[in-house]
Amino acid sequence: MKKRMSGFPLACAMICATATLAPAAFAATETIPVTGALTTSELTGTVTVVDQERRMLTIQTPEGTFEVIHVPDQVTRLDQVKIGNKLTINQTDAVVVDLQKGPGTGSVSVTKETVTERAPGNKPGGTIVNTMTRSGRVEAVDKANSTVTVRGPTQTQTYTVRDPALLNSVVPGDGVVLTYMHVLRGEVKFR
Fold it and tell me: For position 30, what pLDDT does the model report?
């Protein structure tokens, strides 16, 4: 399984995180990216078992190991995957933390969205994008201890800030938005 870092999808995630604001609110709101991270992995192998009832596939990797994969319900062409097919799955996880300042910021909420896109052609394949956005409000800033307290949808937590200079622009009432994206892309190649 290979892992690599990339900035392009992270930039896309940052754009997606700010695109959900209403145009009028966006004009009066300043969004400041605080931090972000991205990991990508790839799994490739030959299908050795197809269990449609339990929605499981077993593949043998080029290194000879076996991997069991749970197939999400959004995959509609599992019945077309056969023993001997080559399967490639790419998984990307991105997280972006933004600080929002201005009127209307500081709401507390959680939103989730799943988007599925089927790949064109007769071979099973496509992309599933799960996005979760958690919005919170800054309750307290302690510059002496480099901490910020954020009220989220389910609890209030205090976080230590690695770069104390970031706290110079944070005040109680500011909004904090954490966007997490899980992108799963799969492709089956027939023998």
Answer: 83
